[in-house]
Amino acid sequence: MWDHVLFGLSRRVNVQTASASANRPVVAARLAEQFRTNGSGPLAAFGAGLYGWEDLPQPSSEISDSPIINPNWLTSTTDQEVAIQGFKRTREIWQVLEDAGLTVDGSNEYFTGKNITEDKDILDSIQRPLMIIYHTAGTCKMGKADDDKAVLDSRARGARSQ
User: Fold this and answer.
1) Gap between the Cα atoms of 27 and 37, Å rounded
2) What is the pTM of this model?
3) What pLDDT, in 10s, does the model give residues 35-52?
4) Which of 19, 39, 101, 135 is catalytic?
5) Second label for 95, Cα 20 to 30 Å away, from 35, 85, 144, 151?
């Protein structure tokens, strides 16, 4: 299932960006080394979580029935308030970057536009183009420490040291 929601605003900058970091192997390697060395840099950053968890109704007793999954993205009032405040805080950060001369086009906000200022309009601008981030998930074998194919032991700890 798709995972976390992603939203924001866009401006041009004259500094290293996350997309450049992800798309340039040399930059990605440098950032990975920075994180491994001292746990700092862009890879040490984390994002805010939201409260609207998936709604998984009681499963049907019929194996052929598909599950009903409702992720509830930005439907709770708390999530909406957190998202709006996060958006406003992002604008404050952009202002600091602009004041430091790190933006290319001054105060030009390409998306959503500085004319979007009311909470209801900010929420609408977040919900309409909302993107989601996918994290791959899978299973791994559990077994005894001498099992070459086991990744975890019976208590979900690493079965082997590398």
Assistant:
1) 15
2) 0.56
3) 889 888 777 665 444 445
4) 135
5) 35
